[in-house]
Structures are given as C-alpha cells and as structure tokens.
Specification:
243 residues, two-stranded parallel ribbon, 18% strand, 7-stranded parallel beta sheet
Length: 243
C-alpha cells in the first residue's frame, strides 16, 4: 500500500475533511497551504505542512521532489468564502487558472518526484445538455456561453493533464457542488450535489482502489449517475465523518 501522500489544498474544504481519513488509514500526509496560520492548524491534525503557491513552479517542484510521495492529490480551488454572483466571470477565470496552469505545475512536480498516482478534483456540472442522466462518457459543454465556457475549458485542461501524463495513473473525481462543514452551506443546494465528507471519502478510496479514469462523485439525481464510483470504488454518497 502506498504510504506517502502529497495533498495540494490540504487546508481547503475537502482537504480538511480528507486529512483525518488519510491519517487514520495510516498514511503520512504532506499538505500544502499558502497561509502560516493554516499550516499550524494542519500540523495539529497530523499533517506535515508546507507553505507554497502552486503557481511558483520551481518552488513547488522542489517541495514535491523532497516529499517523495507515492500519490499526489490535487484539491486546489480559488473561491472566496461567499460567492458574489456579479463576479462570476472573475471567479471562473481564477479557478480556470488553477485547473490549467496550477495542474500543469503539479503534474510536472509529481512526475519529477517519481509519484505513481495523481488524483485531481474536477466538477460534475459541466456536461452538455441532453442525454441525462450523464455518465462519465457524456460530452462536456464545450460550446457554453461565458463565463461557463471558461469553467469548462479549465476542466478540460485539468482532466487532460491528469489523465495523459504517463507513467502516472491519473484519476479525476468530478464532484457535485459540495455542502456541509466548512463549505458555507449546511444543506444541498441544487440537483448535482455531494456532502463534503462523501467527497473526501471518494479521494481516499481513489488512493486505495481507483483505476485510471474519470468518476462522477455526486448524490443520485436525474441529471447525473455516479454508478461507476459506487461499483468500482465502493463509494457511497451517504458517507459521513463521525465529527
């Protein structure tokens, strides 16, 4: 079993719920943040924290190579605590940069470190209309209007880099909109959703069981099916942490 995990975005909403799962499962976790205060919080959870910006490719590569991880997990996003709908274009551009340039830097660092597996957070609401419920083979909404098109293009960049960087085993988790502790919303809002704990558990399962490819990670709905994750990973949308 792989024992060393490099978790990019360890202090984020999913990262904070994933850390205790990884530690309890016996993994050594090296986790990134850009904040010294959050670094101390991660240390208290049993993580070896590193302060780095994913856009600093040279610094990131040095840190990942020194960490010698078996698995790299990409849980990075760039979203504020509360979303102002009038700034949707700005938010889409920032997240697309993380998914494009940030993923490229992280994959390059993973390859240089000798990591064997890369797991990346994507999103499950970028499918083109029609043919619901969508499975992982359904086409993405490449002809969407802005700012949605920017988001879709960011997803394409992230997924392509994750899945087409041999010898890495690339695994993409297309999450529904997360809710629960630390997300800014206690209840599901919309039709493509997933509790943050179930989202984190999917990443743990991908470390241990995941095969190369894409997995929808969302609660049952008429728009999306996560049957592949349930069947292959043993994932359940009902999973919750004890606290």
């Amino acid at each position: 079993m792989s024992k060393r995990i490099f978790l990019a975005g360890a202090a984020g909403a999913i990262g904070r719920r994933l850390v205790p799962l990884l530690v309890e499962a016996g993994y050594s976790v090296i986790g990134t943040t850009r904040s010294p205060e959050k670094a101390e919080n991660l240390r208290a959870l049993g993580v070896e924290p590193v302060i780095v910006d994913v856009f600093d490719a040279d610094a990131l590569a040095r840190i990942v190579v020194n960490a010698k991880p078996d698995v790299v997990i990409h849980q990075l996003t760039d979203l504020p605590a509360s979303v102002d709908p009038t700034k949707a274009t700005e938010f889409a551009a920032r997240n697309a940069r993380i998914r494009g340039q940030g993923t490229d830097n992280l994959v390059r660092a993973a390859l240089a470190s000798g990591a064997r597996r890369m797991i990346a957070q994507s999103i499950a609401w970028t499918y083109a209309p029609g043919g619901e419920p969508h499975d992982e083979q359904a086409p993405l909404d490449l002809d969407a209007l802005e700012p949605r098109r920017t988001s879709v293009n960011g997803v394409v960049a992230l997924e392509t880099k994750t899945l087409q960087s041999p010898p890495l085993t690339g695994i993409v988790l297309r999450y529904g909109r997360i809710y629960g502790p630390g997300t800014g919303g206690d209840a599901a809002n919309g039709s493509i959703t997933v509790h943050v704990d179930a989202a984190a558990h999917a990443a743990l399962l991908a470390v241990e069981r995941g095969e190369h490819g894409i997995f929808n990670i969302a609660e049952p709905s008429g728009e999306l099916t996560s049957a592949k994750a349930v069947r292959t990973l043993g994932w359940s949308p009902a999973f919750r942490l004890a606290k």
